[in-house]
Design brief:
This protein is mainly alpha-helical and 200 residues long. The protein contains 9 helices and no strands.
Length: 200
């Protein structure tokens, strides 16, 4: 029996995720056949079982990859914004705009809920922690009203996640996105400290 190197094992894993990502996006989780998926990857069911255990395990890995990419995109918005408040508010709006991207819509917002249930505690904690760090910075600069940052981060993350799902599940997605962006702007306006007024 030929032992595969670590690099070959990683290559096989990456190929399975790449193929599954495309197939899950095109067909939806429930319609995907493991035989068809592994055939498209040029691999065996055994390779899939070795790396991911089963179809659900592979799907969970795909969701994790897309989540990480979304997080990197959102972080780039924060990092390249003209000021911290613009970075935070643009990041919140961008999250809702992602709800109209077909791959994110089908895999992360629809199928992940049905297959994996609610977001895992680890994924949810990561999202809340990212927002909490940003809010703590905004509070330190007197841009956002001082309050418990973790509580506020949890509230904003929950609102964004549910609104994104609402947008993804609507037949009138452009209108829902517009309404969602208007609603999140109201939320953001509510946590921001009033700007100082100029005196004549």
């Amino acid at each position: 029996m030929v032992r595969r190197t670590r690099a070959q094992m990683e290559q096989t894993r990456a190929l399975l995720i790449e193929t599954a990502r495309r197939v899950f996006s095109e067909q939806g989780y429930s319609e995907v056949s493991l035989d068809d998926l592994t055939a498209q990857a040029g691999l065996t069911r055994g390779a899939l079982y070795h790396h991911f255990g089963d179809k659900k395990g592979l799907f969970q890995a795909v969701v994790g990859h897309i989540d990480a990419e979304m997080d990197a995109r959102l972080q780039a918005i924060s990092d390249h914004a003209e000021d911290p408040w613009a970075g935070f508010s643009n990041r919140c709006r961008a999250y809702l705009e992602m709800a109209r991207e077909p791959e994110i819509q089908r895999i992360v917002l629809r199928d992940a809920r049905a297959v994996l249930g609610a977001p895992t505690p680890a994924a949810q904690l990561h999202c809340v922690s990212s927002l909490q760090v940003l809010l703590e910075g905004l509070m330190a600069e007197n841009i956002v009203v001082a309050t418990a940052p973790q509580a506020l981060a949890s509230m904003i993350q929950g609102a964004l996640a549910e609104t994104a799902l609402w947008i993804a599940n609507g037949a009138d997605q452009p209108e829902r996105l517009e309404q969602g962006l208007a609603a999140v702007q109201l939320l953001l306006d509510g946590i921001r400290r009033p700007l100082p007024t100029a005196h004549a």
